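Notes on consecutive records. When two proteins share a document, each keeps its own sequence and its own token line. Never mix them. Below: protein one.
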Amino acid sequence: MSIIAWKTAWDEYSQKTIYQRVSRSCACPEKTAQSPYSDTREIAMNIYDIENRTVDELRQGYYYDPGKGYICLHCEFTSTSASAMESHLKEIHSKEEDSFFYHLLNADSVLGELSYPVKMVAYCLYKRMTDKEIGETLNMNPNTVRSHRRLLRKKYSECKVMLMLCERMNLGRQSDRARPPAPDERIPGLDADGNVIGFFGKDRVHDPKRPIPHASVLLLVAQRHEDGAMRFLICTKSSRMLTFAGKADAAFGEQLHKRWIDIEGGQCQQSDCAAIELHKPLPEEIFINAAKRELEEEVYIKAYPLDTAKPMYLYTDETGKEGTKLFPFGQNMETTRVYLVRLPDGIPQNRILVRDTWTDSVGGSITKRYPSEFVTFEELLGFVDSDDTALMDGALRVVERMKRDPTLKKRMFDMLENAEL
């Protein structure tokens, strides 16, 4: 199979929903999350099941509750007999085996993050492909395929030993009570006049059918390097794409193979300001507080106090009433304030780390630290037309605005040059 055929096959596969879609009537609070699509909810085996169910229960796909009977881990279907539950799994969920494998493959909070190439090799092995077929499909050296296969076998051996140890320590079942889901980061939603209408989660404000206007901040973090050039901190979000793929119905096989780049930033949250009131505009201080929080959460410098770096307001960006399309799904309608942050000269790049936090396929929270990467602004502009690199929504809007407004670009560099260090 050629790499083009592989991309086509992946493109078709990515159109399938990873989670079993069910009606609201069979949803339970501990296992549901509002779907990006307003008429459905999503249910799937999640991190609470993994933590609280035995290996046998997870493998068979259901568990027994003395008060309720047999309960399906995929959709909360209940039955008084094991045979009826087996029939349910065979009739309803047997066709979802591919999606379920993909769902587990992206449980990074449990597995430890597997690299994108290793995950793709794992998926090909699941499809019973030979090393030669995998190499041709992924355009990968056969030695690399074998190396990834050995890594997966090594993990399998480790898991077997750990399982035996845990069984002897009586750690097979922690508790029958699932931990409550972590509360959503509450994002103030706004009406057309900019007044607060309530507080929502990320999926809701980015609903592709009914997005909710909200506020956000973006940070252009810069440092002068030894060659005298001002360079900007970027972060690679490619490791999140497979997890995001599980939430997308739209095909994006070609896009999935790109390297996705973003800059620092995020939504303004309820915790950023205690003075938020319903039916009134957001207080001004919420933006600078959000900028400081995002800087503290996303940029880490070893053995150096980051409080010397102060966000400097540059301009305000509006997505407009139509909003902008998010990859791989969703719609974004936000008012964004863009800030500049000048890091002191002379800090070695290997001391600067980028932190990224996201939710994986089973609902677990993951925080990773990555080595920093700095690029010139011209290199950042070049990513717009690149075949193998793409800019995510926030970075793309900043870059396109700078291309349209050279005066703003000049002001940005002037502010960075004159920033107090």
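Protein two starts on the next line and is unrelated to protein one.
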Amino acid sequence: MELLLVDDHPALADGVKSMLSKESNWQITSAYSSKAALDLLKQKKFDLLLTDLNMPEYSGLELIQLSKALYPDLIILIFTAYDLLPMFNSLVKAGVSGVLCKTMRSDQLISSIHLALQGEAIFPLHYFNNFNALRSDELHKKTISERELSIIKEVAKGLSNREVSRILFISQRSVEHHLTQLFRKLEVASRAEAVGEVRRLGLLPGE
């Protein structure tokens, strides 16, 4: 099995590679940026992509989408230190097979990858518990919408609400409404905090 490991912290990536290399039938290739990962994907077909979300150049979500465009059957697992519950719907929609915590033991990580390779979904139980506890008409209140993401991407460039409205062809009031909803979901109080949190979640490229 060919596995591609992507993390912009070389020491961590090398440590995980060494850990996974104990599996005799796994060939592990590592990349330290989303751009390097895409270059490798264009050269070679992999069975599984294990990637952090908070990445420079391309965000983790962009890497997932571009990878799936190249190989629709590619198994993708997110390797993160953060709770990605606000992104659950977006990750599933993008074709992610699971979210793994960077603090898990080596045997847990290897076991989870084996399960993913067998076609299993690997997500923290509390993701499902939180969503099962909500009525269907409340789900959108807990996940970041595509419109909110498109707005915060422009805000991250330093644009004003008026400038964002012109670029996206929506009213300024609509921009303000969506930002208010996004602030509530992310539990932040300012544009800067929202940009930082969305970047931390891997929806925007890291700085």
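For the record: Residues 144-200 form a domain with the Arc Repressor Mutant, subunit A fold (CATH 1.10.10.10).
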